Amino acid sequence: MALVVFYEKPGCSNNTRQKQLLSRSGHDVVALDIRAQGWTPEGLRPFFEGLPVAQWFNRAAPRVKSGAVVPESMPADEALAEMCLDPLLIRRPLMESGGRHMAGFDEAAVADWIGLARTAEPIPETCPRSDGICSLPGR
Which residues participate in catalysis according to the annotation? Predict the structure, then answer.
């Protein structure tokens, strides 16, 4: 199976379920805090290849929800610069394996890429909480 580097926000319940699905599918997961990576525009760009700029953003990020950042009106270079300054803006998870990069967790795309075990119900990609603060109970 694959070695997957998984950039997450620790404590995010969706990221936890996504990592569990990868592990149950036989993959080795190396989880890293997306906020602690010292991102550069060049380092982030491969994760978003082929996606419109608006899909690069975490819709639950406080600055997106408040309207301070409007993904639909941001040029790519500005979006990458803002994400480097505020990693909470980055759509999660970011994953890399075998030289390929992916932003977000589209189960069908991940299954086509590295393979996934079937689940009873899909894991949501966005935070299930209305306040956007995604965490595990007790954290």
Answer: 12
- Give me the number of domains the chain comprises: 1
Judge whether 125 lies within some domain.
no
Residue among 117, 106, 125, 97 at smallest CA distance from 20: 117
pLDDT in tens, 47-94: 999 999 999 999 999 999 999 999 999 999 999 999 999 999 999 999
Does 95 reside within a domain? yes
Torsion 14-44-71-36 (CA) sign: positive
- Per DSSP, the residues of 72-115 read GG--HHHHHHHHHH-GGGB-S-EEEETTEEEES--HHHHHHHT-
Q: What is the pLDDT of residue 138?
A: 37
What is the domain extent for residue 22? 3-113
36, part of any domain: yes
How far, in Å, CA of 91 to CA of 139, rounded?
Answer: 21
Residue 58 lies in a domain: yes
